[in-house]
Amino acid sequence: MDIRPIADGYAVSPQITPEDVAAIREAGFTTVICNRPDGEIPPEVQAEAIRAAVEGAGMRFVLNPVVGGAITMENVEAQGAALDGAGGPVLAYCASGNRSSIVWALSQAGKRPTDELVAAGAKYGYATEQFRPTIEQLARG
Prior knowledge:
The structure is a single chain. This protein has six helices and five strands. It is of the alpha/beta class and 141 residues long. The protein has one domain: Alpha-Beta Complex (Protein-Tyrosine Phosphatase, Chain A). It is globular and about 40 Å long. The mean pLDDT is 94. This is TIGR01244 family phosphatase.
């Protein structure tokens, strides 16, 4: 497991396993967001397996599957709602952390400066720069 802090209270990770959940809880996270569609992965790491482990450890689990190259406004709004209702630090995961960083940046448009949103994911090599125009458009409302 490779937890990458993107902002205060929000980190991303490549795919997690049920065995990672204790360490996630120990690291202080209160909510785990799955941004990975089940169709990409084997059953042992699909959403319901992770949900059972996360909820069993006393944390909140949110399913918001993001299809690579096809992020929707529904994904953006769901990510923002999950963050707003988190009540503590959030860990979001997908295949590499890229989609989790992008959907976070889009959900935070207008709440944080665009440069900050782009830089947060870029420091880990995530493809956030190409979303700058969309972030700016969302920030304008």
